[in-house]
Amino acid sequence: MDITQTFYDNMASRYDRLFQDWPAAVHEQSVILDKIFAGNGFDRTARILDCACGIGTQAIGLAALGYPVTASDISDAELAEASARAASNGVEIRFEHADFCALSDTFSEQFDIVIAMDNALPHMLTREALASAIRSITGRIRPGGIFVASIRDYDSILDAKPPYSPPYIHKTDKGQRVSFQTWDWSGDSYRLTQYIIDDEDELEVSKFECEYRAARREEMTDLLLSSGCSEVTWNFPEETGFYQPVVAARM
């Protein structure tokens, strides 16, 4: 099991603590994605594959809007969490264990829309690995379909290579929750340590580690075009309301 799979397996039961209000985020993000899809000519009959679904933050919201959603991930713990959350939210989603680097091993069909949100692609630690992942993903998109992904704004982050992310401080009924990340850089790659501090009835500290490679938008655009996409468009938080830059690439 690699560091990425271990990271998400260990975080599965606590991932929602990164949000002030996870159910509200599920709805808000689905509305944002729905507008992006509509702007690219799709209605809610479009078949979606969320190939890095995590605990279902995007998949559940989109299914609640009426989209037919299939969701996959490399983390069995997150898939179990997502499945339970889908059931409790009254939505039907097909869940599959799949590595987005080898989607054809699990899926023979193609989809209208494939998404990979929340900085999933930068887990690929070399340009070659990123290119391979993008080829795998675009191979599951029908002609005329789109790939939608979000990544951190590495174009600005790489200028400073900050050693940590600003903390999020969430007030709770019993106290507060603080979450932040430290980033240990080596070239354009960094080792991330995620801390979640619950300061409620008792103090509880959780720590999770993973690795990323900071991919600039130009590199992502080049790899998408070379994988067969005909058009690549970037949208920014001030335009979409999403917390990261979002790319939409048409096959």
Structural overview:
The protein folds into two domains: 186 residues, Rossmann fold, CATH 3.40.50; 56 residues. Helices cover 32% and strands 31% of the residues. The strands form two sheets. A seven-stranded mixed β-sheet has the order 3-2-1-4-5-11-10, with helices on both faces. It has a four-stranded antiparallel β-sheet with strand order 6-7-8-9. A hairpin with a 3-residue loop joins strand 8 and strand 9. The radius of gyration is 17 Å and the shape is globular. 37% of the residues are buried.
Features:
251 residues, alpha/beta, Rossmann fold, 7-stranded mixed sheet, 4-stranded antiparallel sheet, 8 helices, 11 strands, 32% helix, 31% strand, globular
Rg value: 17 Å
- In DSSP terms (H or I, runs of 4 or more residues), the helix count works out at 8
What is the CATH homology-level superfamily of the largest domain?
Answer: Vaccinia Virus protein VP39
Number of strands: 11
Helix-strand pattern: HHEHEHEEHEHEEEEHEHE
The shape is globular
Q: What count of structural domains?
A: 2
Biggest sheet descriptor: 7 strands, mixed
Which secondary structure elements does this structure contain, and how are they paired or packed?
Elements: H1 3-11, H2 22-39, E1 48-50, H3 57-64, E2 69-73, H4 76-88, E3 94-97, E4 111-116, H5 127-138, E5 141-150, H6 154-160, E6 168-172, E7 175-186, E8 189-199, E9 203-213, H7 217-226, E10 231-235, H8 237-240, E11 246-250
